[in-house]
Structures are given as C-alpha cells and as structure tokens.
C-alpha cells in the first residue's frame, strides 16, 4: 500500500469506494503512471477536488459543506508513544469530517509551554481546542479566554485533580483517572494480595494525568483493611532512568508482595524487573499497571505482569475532533459529552489479539485495516 | 575592551564629508558594526516572514504571547551572559528557577512572611545557591560545568522532596496586584525583562565590574596579574545569574498561575538561555558577549516557537523544522557578522 502515490490515495478517497474496490483500484494493473491516474481520477470527480475553493468542497457524508475547520490538540508529552494512537484517531476523524488538526504542546510536560501553545491557538483563531489539563490552576485563564473568544474547548486524557477539573472546558474525554487507579488497586486485592509490602511506581509524581491514579490505588489498598503497607515511589519520565530506579528498588526490597505502576513506562519496567529477578518465585503475588506498550504486553503473555489497563488512547483523539466538529456544525446545539474512554483490563486471557495484530488503534501500525474477530465476546 | 579599540578606529576613519548620503551610509556602517546587528536582522526577518505567512502573528494578543515566551529566557540569559563572559557556565539555573517560587510559597504559607519580603528572601536563597556555585568553582577549582551539574541535581532534589513533587497554587496574599505586577499582567514580564536587560547591558559595557568580567574571561592570568580579584568577579556573576533565574521563575509561576516542580523543565530554560546568549553573539569560551544580543537571541527563539505554532506545524515535524530554522538563521547570522567585520577594515 505504501508504494502508492499519496496523490492517488487521496483521489481514490474522494470516490468513497468500499475498501476492497479501493484496494483493487490502487493495486490495479492498468495504472501505469501514478500521477496520470491521479489526474484522471481528480478530473472524474471534479466537485470533490481538494484544491478547489471552500464553495466547491462538498461536506463530509450527508453533512453540508463546511470550511476546513482546524482543531488544536495541546498535549503535555507531544512525542510520547502513548499518544501515537491518539494522533491517528484525530487524523482519521479529520479525514472523515474534512477538518484538520494540529498536535502541539510541550515535549517534557512543561506547563508554561502548554499555556503558550494554548494562547497561540487562541491568537490563531483555532476552531476548537482539545487540552490535556495536567495542572489544576494553570489552564483556567487560557480556557476562559478561548471560550470568551467563541472557541469550544474540551479536555482529553487529563482533567485536573480528583474533585476539581481545573478549567471550564465543555467536557472531558478520557479515563476517569482516580477511578482507574482505584480499580488497579481493587484488582490487585482480588488477585490475592492480602498482606505485605506493596509499591506503586509513578513516573512524574504530581502530574495530574497520573497522580490521581496512584491516589486511587493507594486508597483502594488502605480501605481494604488488610495488613498491607503501600509506598509510592517516583521513577522518571525517561523510561531508561525509570527502569534503573525500579530495578534498584526491587533489589532493596526483595520481599515485595505487590508491584503496581500507573504509567506506561513504569509498567513496562516493572514487567522487566519482575522477570529479571524472578520475583514471582520470591513471594510477589501481584504485578500490574497501565497501558499497552509492546514490552508490557509481552510481560503479560510471559506471566511477569498480571494485568494492564487499556484506556483507548485512539478514542481520546478521535472523539474530541468529532465533538468539536458537531459543536461547530450545530451552532452549539450538540454539546460535547463527558466520555469515559474505558477501563479495560488486559490479562493473559485476552492479550493475544493485542500482540498478534498491529493496528492504528494501538499505534503499532500506520496502515488502515479491518481487524477481523470471531467467537464469543467475553463478559461477566 | 575591544569596544575602546573600535572607538579609536572609528574616530580615525571618520571621513570629513557631510552629505546626507554619506551620513546615511555612516549610520548604516555604525549599525552593522554593532555585534547585535546581525541577530537583530535575523529577528526582524523572521518577524516579517511569520507576519506575511499568518496575519494573526502581529495582533496584540499574539505579541503578548511572544513577549511572554521571550522574557523569562532573556532574563536568565542576561545573567548567563555575565557568567559566560567571565569564562564559566551555570547549568543549575533552571533548578533555581523552579525552586524560587516554592521558597516563596513556603515562606508565605508556612511561616506567614508578608509577600514582598518573602519574594526577596526567595531571591536571597537563589543568590546563596549562586554563591555556592561560585565558591566551589573558584575555591575548590572544580570546573563550573561539573559544579553546577551537581547543584542542578541537588536543587532539583530539594524541589521534589520539599514539594512532594506536587504542584501548588499561588499563595493567597500574592494573588491580585502583586501577581499582576510580577508577571501576570499582559506586558509586565516584558517590562521587567527590558529593565533587567538594559541594566545589565550597562553593567557589562560601562562599569568596572563589566570590564573586569571581560578581562577575567578573556585572560584570567593577565587579569589576576593586573590586580583584578577574579574570584570575587566570578562568584558575583554566579550570584547574579542565580538571582535572575529565581526572579524569572517567580514571574513565570505568577504568569501561569501555578507553582509546578517541573517549571522551566529542569534544564530546558537553561539551554534556552545559553542558546539565546550564543545566538546573540556571546562566546562559549568566555571573554566576549552582549546582553542585548542575548535578548535578541531569546526573541528569535520565541518567534520561531510561536510562529511555527501559529502557522500550524505539529509537534513531530516541529523539532525538525525548528532545528533547521535555527541552523539557517545562525548561518545567516554568522554571514552577516562576517560582512560586518569586513566593513571594519
């Protein structure tokens, strides 16, 4: 698929064909020259020509023609692989709705840079803003300014502190963070954790995209009333540094009963450290964490981790675009709705499809594809 | 020191004619002779480019955005220029930048110190860290790169331990007038920045302290032989950069309305300040530099960051394009300075 000239793909996309016809057309033997084909296709559907003025562009699907609205995503760790599927989600929604998006913010969770990026989006008169609210106070003023300027704002992935969203955003699209941490702890208790020392690793303590999780995990364990001692340990946003911290902690505390982690990097490292020191044989009852990076999935398959929690980052990119689009399209009648993007436990029983398929939904592939599934859907 | 030589040359070279054209040319030459000229041209060029690419660039709210991205870097860079000119470097300033607002918060909220004295005390503590940097570097002869790498981590550790690595809000007594004066109001950061840059430009170019700073950085042995107390100069400059770092940190905390342990991104603001200084014409090896140039360097960085955000470049290609833009601007900068030097003969 990658050999096909992008111009051709774009042209074919405008035809609205079903996937098989589309693929056949793109791989078709008759297409000797990609550019020639693109020209022909573009001519065949003149009204859809992307280079045309806004008046000529038809709306997406049955929707009326709209300007190419531009939505700005402000992220706290723009280059973190966790957000790769989020960007694919936003990209796919934009392709569907004939919009565009910009992915910006800070590379290393510097709040001032995020505030600058938000203010710049307001100056640039963005059509909508999706914001990861990783600080309780800093984004209140920028969000109010955007709303004053008529720019709809939703939050995604992080939404202030446990009881205080920190901004007047219209809605939050992401995981209930405190709740997910609480579930992390409860699952550990249900998996046989009843006494001993439990450690919770957190890459960036205080950052509001993960701190509520560790608060939740800690509360779940404390509220159980079992003789458990919960300690939270800061690791590092840099996975390599974080891993050596977790390694050192494990060496110093060989009799841990439980190891939990609340971010992708720490979770992956917990899996590796558990395997390295065969901690399963030394009294470790439970190890679990968050997110779906490949090392974590392999650790689950191999048994060094018991479970990880999927929060569906793809939807955290797709849904904000959809909601902002509807808000614009309906003149504010369709108001963005609070969405919990999920709390899905991935365990040894259901890890296989994650390992075997590479998809845009997990960020492991750029290719658009239909993922087939069969058999019963697991339920309680 | 080279400035005095320049003045002498200028007097000799001054042609007797007074036609308007000649005066204009003279002004042009005078301008090009200034070390800051080339980076100013780059800054203006970038401004024109972004303004033509995106009309929102020159709107008032966006100029505020640019000023806010420029000011903290330029304030830290003003101090960094002094340290670099005296032949040292301070890697720890980004950590001091994050510590100062926390110290202010502790003093106000836990020790009931009034706001202004609390801010001054926080700056004093910053200066003390600068003193420690200078003292260890000068007395124990540890290279400043290593000294300040150590203090960088120590201070980051202090920030994380004392704050429990958790952000906090601006102390109640500071909210309102003081917060607005010190960073939160639209142009307040830029105003402070211009005052500080102006002041330290004068210090570097027109005072004995500045002269000694250049001398110590240019030729340490010669300067000490001539009776300059090099230790005092270096330690003093370390204290200046740390204090300015603390001040910029407090203003940035006021501006974003939160006190965050990751303020300035640890080394991020330090790298930006060193980059601004070097872009502005300060030598990494010491002995020469300009505070106004560093301000313009910070402006160039802020323009690039803001302008590219404005025209809608996403995060991944952003770094690619930012890097290329820095290289191209700086090649232009070096080329322009070569023209400048050629004009001098």
Helicity range of chain B: over 70%
The average pLDDT of chain A is 84
How confident is the prediction overall: mean pLDDT of chain B? Answer: 88
CATH topology of chain B: ABC transporter involved in vitamin B12 uptake, BtuC
CATH superfamily annotation of the largest domain in chain A: Response regulator
- Any idea of the CATH topology of the largest domain in chain A? Rossmann fold
Strand order of the largest sheet of chain A: 2-1-3-4-5-11
Order of helices and strands of chain A: HHHEHEHEHEEHEHEHEHEHEHEEH
* Distinct helical segment count of chain B: 15
Task: Report the radius of gyration of chain B as a whole number of Å.
Answer: 21 Å
Largest sheet of chain A: 6 strands, parallel
**Tally of structural domains of chain A:** 3
CATH architecture label name of the largest domain in chain A: 3-Layer(aba) Sandwich
Low-confidence stretches of chain A: 28-56
Q: Please provide the count of β strands of chain B.
A: 0
CATH C-level class of the largest domain in chain A is: Alpha Beta
Describe what this molecule looks like in 3D.
The complex is a heterodimer of chains A (about 375) and B (about 350). Chain A has about 375 residues and is an alpha/beta fold. Chain A has three domains: about 5-50; about 70-175 and about 315-340, 3-Layer(aba) Sandwich (Rossmann fold), CATH 3.40.50; about 175-310, 3-Layer(aba) Sandwich (Rossmann fold), CATH 3.40.50. Chain A is about 40% helix and about 15% strand. Chain A has a six-stranded parallel beta sheet. In chain A, helix 10 links the parallel strand 8 and strand 9. In chain B, about 50% of the residues are buried. Chain B is mainly α. Chain B has one domain (about 35-345): ABC transporter involved in vitamin B12 uptake, BtuC (Orthogonal Bundle), CATH 1.10.3470. Classes of the chains: A alpha/beta (about 375), B mainly alpha (about 350). The interface of A and B includes residues 111 and 124 of A.
